[in-house]
Amino acid sequence: MNILDHFQLNTIPESLRSMSKADMENRVREIKEVLGTRLFMPGHYYQKDEVIQFADATGDSLQLAREAAKNKKADYIVFCGVHFMAETADILSEDNQTVLLPDLRAGCSMADMADINQVELAWTELQKKFGDTILPLTYVNSTAAIKAFCGKHDGAAVTSSNAEAMLEWAFEKKERILFLPDQHLGRNTAYDMGVKLEEMAVWDPINHRFETEGDLEKVRVILWKGHCSVHEKFTIDNVREIRKQQPDARIIVHPECSLEVVQAADEAGSTNKIVNTIRNSAPGSKWAVGTEMNLVNRIAAEETDKTVFSLNQNMCPCLTMNRIDLPNLLWSLESIMEQKPQHVISVDAHTQRDALTALNNMLNRGH
Asked: Residue 230: which residues within 8 A CB-CB, separation 6 or more?
């Protein structure tokens, strides 16, 4: 498929484009009613309100994939998220279930920063340097191929909420960890566990070299040079500005933010932790939140007895996550009704087997 074919696949039919928002919403409800339990629609926290209103379950990526896997009745899983999330749902779901992504352009820049060919090349170099002393771990925000790589080498997947437990598990097995693809989650987690900064080194896959001035023999955590394009935009200057302008506000951020931002914040944690911390906080409390804008706005709208706003007022929503909108969602559902499901996400059996190993190594620890 060439690039023109790819974009043609995402050209919404004129019959849908000409519909009003109300008509599209009514049609989505109608299709959901017709399909009933044959359809399951998980929606990630970062989705637009126009999409999330129809979600059968809302949460983070792994939580939704597990919900999809538990739903054995659904013939179709329409995943309102991004590509790697739909892949994970396909890996964990039954063979007779079909996973669809409403817009194939809904990707993840972080996941794209760890290409399997780059990882294979890096692994060869790291084995030459350190021998058989490394265990690979990958954030669930990664492609199926990267999860499969980790499973193949006895590693595991991690989430932002269980990263510390999984690093502890990995250190029981090997002296060193290769952490993919988000350097910030890896650094923040290891630092909180007492790993010194000089015991960490960043691997640059583009220039194929380490970024460190320290002694490589002392390195315990090798951080892949990847990041979230949303969370990396929260800066220490944002924190200082809030402290100056609104000193009564508490600052809570996601661990995909940089180390200096996480250390300067009052609290840091997974998306679920951010949501639950604010929900359970005292009425009248004030929160500056360092995570995706759609979620921040949704929390602010729901928690009206508190003041909730973005740590960076100039932030935009996650652009790739926002590829999925109401017209694309309806188009996806119409394809099911026409018995010609489009944008099906299917992971090949070989990749699925090894990726499942990585996921099970995490899930078997009770996370």
From this structure: 256, 291, 292, 315, 318
